[in-house]
Amino acid sequence: MTIRSILAIATVAMIASCQKKSNDTIDPSKVMVSISNPIGNQSFHNGDTLQVNAHVSYTSELHGYEVKVVDTSTGTILFDYEEHVHMDVFDVDKRWPVAVSAATNAVVTIVVSIDHNGETATKEVGVRLDP
User: What are the domain boundaries of the chain?
Assistant: First the structure.
């Protein structure tokens, strides 16, 4: 088997793995994202670990998710993690060691990728970060 044949097979397999389980109309409002940790307005200090736990579900296979921690006053991304998944139900469990130089209001955001066309669903919770 040639390299070209192997690459063609791998490409077809990758495209097939990203196909949705159903042909239902995409409805981002039906993506359920339940953030259990952190809770709204929870405070963290340098050296603490901000743990992000969430449960995600939808009626069809999802494409992936991103977890971000963003400074709300500057827009600076303090933490960013992406994962490619092919499941209709999954849990998010990510940790970020808090390290800020000044008191910061931030938002923890989970962005769920529904498909390859850019459809997403978002859930967020505000937190306080202190040195």
Answer: 21-130
Which tens digits make up the pLDDT trace of 12-47? 555 555 544 556 688 888 999 999 999 999 999 999
DSSP state of 9: H
The predicted model scores a pTM of: 0.81
At 43-94, the pLDDT tens digits run: 999 999 999 999 999 999 999 999 999 999 999 999 999 999 999 999 999 9
Fold of the 21-130 domain: Immunoglobulin-like (2.60.40)
Q: What is the dihedral of CA 61, 79, 122, 49, to 10 degrees?
A: 90
Q: Kindly state the tokens that stand for 118.
A: 């850019």
* CA separation for the pair 19, 116 (Å, rounded): 9
For residue 110, give both structure tokens.
């989970």
**Distance between first and last Cα of the chain:** 58
CA 52/CA 66 separation, integer angstroms:
11
